[in-house]
Amino acid sequence: MRMSPNAPDGQVDLDSVDLFDPFLHSEGHPHAVWRALRAEAPVHRQQLPDGRQFWSVTRYADACRVLRDHEDFTSERGTLLSALDVGDPAGGKMMAASDPPHHTMLRESLNRVLSARAVNARRNTLLKPVDRLVEPLLNGESTDLAVLAADFPMDFIGTFMGLPESDWPRLTKLTTMAVAPHDPAFQEGSAPLTLVTAHHELFEYFSEQLAARDGTPTDDLIGHLMQTRIDGKPLDHESIVYNCYSLILGANVTTPHTVTGLVQALMDHPDAYRAVVADPSLVAGCVEEGLRWTSPASHFMRYATQDVRLSDSTVKAGSALAVWLGSANRDEDVFADPYTFDITRRPNRHIAFGFGPHYCVGAALARLSLRMLLERVCALVERIEPAGEVRHLASNFVAGVTSMPVRGVPRDGAHPARLS
Length: 420
Ligand code: HEM
Hints:
The chain is an alpha+beta fold. The chain is built from 16 helices and 14 strands. It has a single domain (14-418), classed as CATH 1.10.630.10.
């Protein structure tokens, strides 16, 4: 997705806005649409040709209200537009598609292994993935950062989940197929077939992984789910499989696009890159601005459980609402100069990781991995230059790229062979 609102003609016709269309997000200017909606129709109803409808929520305050209030807005009927009005078989089983109290109990359990303290204790797991990504930036040749970044989270979540490394490349592809089935770069047959294949293979895969453990929990996230007790009872096989799916998807489809979007922003703002290099204490703020700037999880959905007023609209019970996080993170009522990439932005209360009870459970892991990566890049790479055309991902769920050729210019003495 393009990070700027500068549509060529500058005009947005609100009657024909189609935020459902995956190609608006790859070829169009969603930021221009969101800006117009925030100003003129902050809670905006869209009807699809097949009659299904959803509301788009674009202002920060409304977004936080919807995400925070699980009583008025449930997650159990599904949270992605791709499954609008079709129901969610994982509802009440997968953490992301559960409401309290089930959600709270599952969440407390996973928090124990994904808290900042817990992931910091395992930070060594991140060293190899970081070096694998940085290495091709040190040989002076052109490389596709989108491809490198796509492997990055798989490289650590694979270890955290105890999955064999030989399976990682296929898992990386399947997770992108699940969120961008319309993108030709990842299609296997038609879009519906691509989606079905991705879901089927991923669920089969985790089912087999679980069966292979034969009831004996391993020292990894899958083992942790096997030992989790809700009201004294273990999770059933299906629930563990759904939550494995959610963990791998959560990591794989988001993190890469903050990497590429942040690098793009730093190429566009060489002063900012020089500032972080000169002062490593700016790394954390730079990552936060990268998260706000890229907002890779573009929307999450909820269904209203009763009639609710939001801004000046009434949303009827049962209606679907898509909360556009990328829009909330550019809300001019909350962020000064929202279209300026500012690594010293304070405060920076972005909601790229969501808000309220479902706030990303992997946020500490994502932050640590991004900080370690940026620190390593700053230490070894003098600058990164564009080396070809950027291609954007066709997905209404993930804001990202499929191709981003770049060339790294290493610092004196930084050489791939010295990394291992
Ligand atoms: C830059 C990286 C990431 C971004 C931008 C991101 C974004 C988000 C957002 C916006 C939500 C809220 C969903 C909702 O409100 O319905 C969420 C939830 C979640 N994320 Fe992440 N995520 C990232 C990394 C990760 C990682 C590394 C993992 C795996 C360890 C992960 C796993 C999850 C899970 C399981 C949930 C559901 C949490 C719940 O329902 O309580 N995410 N993420």
